[in-house]
Amino acid sequence: MTWYLAIPSSSSHTLLGSLAGAVIAGAGLHAVNWNGFTQIIIILILSPIIAFALGYLIMVLIKYIILWSGNKSRSKLNRMFRTLQILSAGLLSYSHGGNDAQKAMGIIVFGLVAANYQSDLNVPLWVKISAALAMGLGTSIGGWRIIKTISGKIVKIEPINGFAADLTSSLVIQFSTHIGKPLSTTHVISSAIIGTGSVMRFHEVQWATVGRMLITWIITIPISIALAFSIYFILFRLILGQ
Predict the structure, then answer these.
(1) Residue from 176, 164, 184 nearest 53 by CA
(2) Which pTM was predicted?
(3) Cβ count near 232 (within 10 Å)
(4) Residue 4, Cβ density class (10 Å: 0-12 exposed, 13-18 middle, ≥19 buried)
(5) CB 222 within 8 A of CB 14
(6) CA 222-227-232 angle, 5° bins
(7) Mean pLDDT of all residues in the chain?
């Protein structure tokens, strides 16, 4: 739905809410580890705030370095940062998979253990390959509507702030992955773009679009819980009688 509306939403929020909704429907409220659930929610809330602030600071630092170097040629700067952005985008892609793909694999392993197909939490090779292929294909085939929103409907992205946003997002995502905490890469990347864009052209940031994104981010988890609960209830209780 959010893809159709071209609104960047969080697969992390969706997975978290859906898992909680399905578990509540199948085993009750007591089956959810609410302490762990709350910890993840806190990370999901803090990470975009940190990404915005860090993106703003990194962009300010880059501007000061450019002014200090005396290089004011827009075309030369764009060429230089366009090259650097190839590296930063590659790092961001790696960071993205390192956090987001783990969540998808975790859900699959959870299902395998629940269905007694395996007794441990080791991730099978076919699960790793499936998650990697799905993320790559989904991004390349179905991501264009979101790409257009991220790249042009929040703030105009140039190679300079594009590089800064990539670097910011990679740092935040890599740190979260290192400490073993899931976050929303979508929220982090979007917030980094808003932060860097605010330094470049604050008055050109499309705050109406940002507002719609924030509303979507807030309602994603409760909607996911309700949908997963309903689907489980209809499928297993009404149709299968379990």
Answers:
(1) 164
(2) 0.83
(3) 18
(4) exposed
(5) no
(6) 130
(7) 86
Instruction: With H, G, I as helix, E, B as strand and everything else as coil, classify residue 73.
Output: coil
Phi, psi of 123, rounded to the nearest 5 degrees: -90, 115
Residues 99, 185 contacting (CB under 8 angstroms): yes
What is the model's pLDDT at position 72?
Answer: 66
Lookup: tokens for 84:
């650097």
How far is the C-alpha of 159 from the C-alpha of 78, rounded, in Å?
6
d(C-alpha 218, C-alpha 189), whole Å = 17
Which of 11-20, 58-67, 202-211 is predicted with the least confidence, judged by mean pLDDT? 202-211
Angle (nearest 5°) at CA 97 between 2 and 113: 90
The single-letter code of the amino acid at 205 is: V
* Of the candidates 91, 68, 115, 114, the residue with the CA atom closest to the CA atom of residue 165: 91
Name the phi and psi angles at 140, rounded to 5. Answer: -75, -35
Give Dmax over CA atoms of the chain in angstroms: 73
How does pLDDT run across 222-236, given as a tens digit for each residue? 999 999 999 998 888
Q: What is the C-alpha separation between 31 and 205, in angstroms, rounded? A: 43
Q: Are 206 and 153 in contact (CB under 8 A)?
A: yes
CA distances from 227 to 13, 16, 19, 45 (A): 13, 12, 10, 22
